[in-house]
């Protein structure tokens, strides 16, 4: 199955990868490390892999400090690209604590939904990403009942137009079915939206939706302070 646009078939695939690092060693970092990292990000962009953001996830969870989010046309490109970034001097004093990949496929709640990153929308200042697994009966229930619950859920989500949604399929990539990443310029919008969406019938058909990783988008230069 290929993604389609209004003009017809568009064979471009949109894979995405989130990788979380924690500080594991005290490494002296400086401007040269930042410059080398930024140069590598530019090289990756030239090859078709975009780093959507670096995020300060420190103090949100005890085992996380920095998150990288990237997307590109092939899973193997993202694997290789993240390995390159992991080997950079800027991340020399870190180790990976969480990493998950997914791909844009038809979303269960809206056939025409495309993640914000695939539509070329600019990244917001804050983001939260988490996995999602439905109950086993969800996929075999009456489609009309399932559709109504999804429509009700979607209507509540529309009350937060400042939040960008990125819903991508994680089937076969990991233990999860979906990865959901929400972006907003104000952290409180993410808090309010997540709380608001609890008041739907579809919530009865959620089996798992943790862990959450949440952070603010930062520059490579700011990584130095986060990892001190």
Topology:
Elements: E1 4-5, E2 8-9, E3 15-23, H1 31-46, E4 50-56, E5 66-72, H2 75-86, E6 94-103, E7 126-134, H3 143-157, E8 164-169, E9 178-184, H4 187-196, E10 206-208, E11 213-218, H5 220-226
CATH topology: Alpha-Beta Plaits
| N-to-C span | 46 Å
What is the strand content? 25-35%
> What is the level-2 CATH architecture name?
2-Layer Sandwich
Order of helices and strands: EEEHEEHEEHEEHEEH
Supply the number of helical segments: 5
Q: Mean pLDDT, as a whole number?
A: 92
CATH superfamily, please? Apc35880, domain 1
Tell me the structural class. Answer: alpha+beta
Ranges where pLDDT stays below 50 over 5 or more residues in a row are: 1-10
Helix coverage percent: 25-40%
Beta strands, count: 11
Description:
The structure is a single chain. The protein is α+β, with helices and mostly antiparallel strands and 228 residues long. The protein has one domain: Apc35880, domain 1 (Alpha-Beta Plaits, 2-Layer Sandwich). It is built from 5 helices and 11 strands, in the order βββαββαββαββαββα. Strands 3, 4, 5, 6, 7, 8, 9, 10 and 11 form a 9-stranded antiparallel beta sheet that branches. A two-stranded antiparallel sheet has the order 1-2. Strand 8 (164-169) and strand 9 (178-184) form a beta hairpin. The longest helix has 16 residues, at 31-46. 29% of the residues are buried.
């Amino acid at each position: 199955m290929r993604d389609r646009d209004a003009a017809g078939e568009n064979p471009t695939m949109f894979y995405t990868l989130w990788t979380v690092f924690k500080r594991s060693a005290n490494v002296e970092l400086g401007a040269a490390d930042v410059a080398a990292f930024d140069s590598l990000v530019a090289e990756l962009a030239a090859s078709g892999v975009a780093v959507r953001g670096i995020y300060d996830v420190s103090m949100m969870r005890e085992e996380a400090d920095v998150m990288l989010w990237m997307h590109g046309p092939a899973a193997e490109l993202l694997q290789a690209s993240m390995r390159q970034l992991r080997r950079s001097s800027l991340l020399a004093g870190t180790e990976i604590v969480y990493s998950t990949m997914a791909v844009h496929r038809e979303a269960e709640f809206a056939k025409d939904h495309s993640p914000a990153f695939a539509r070329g929308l600019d990244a917001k200042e804050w983001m939260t990403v988490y996995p999602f697994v439905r109950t086993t009966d969800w996929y075999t229930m009456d489609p009309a009942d399932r559709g109504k619950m999804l429509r009700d859920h979607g209507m509540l989500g529309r009350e937060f137009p400042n939040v960008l949604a990125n819903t991508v399929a994680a089937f076969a990539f990991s233990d999860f079915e979906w990865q959901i990443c929400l972006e907003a310029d104000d952290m409180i919008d993410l808090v309010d939206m997540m709380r608001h969406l609890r008041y739907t019938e579809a919530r009865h058909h959620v089996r798992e939706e943790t862990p959450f990783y949440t952070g603010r988008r930062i520059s490579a230069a700011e990584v130095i302070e986060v990892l001190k």
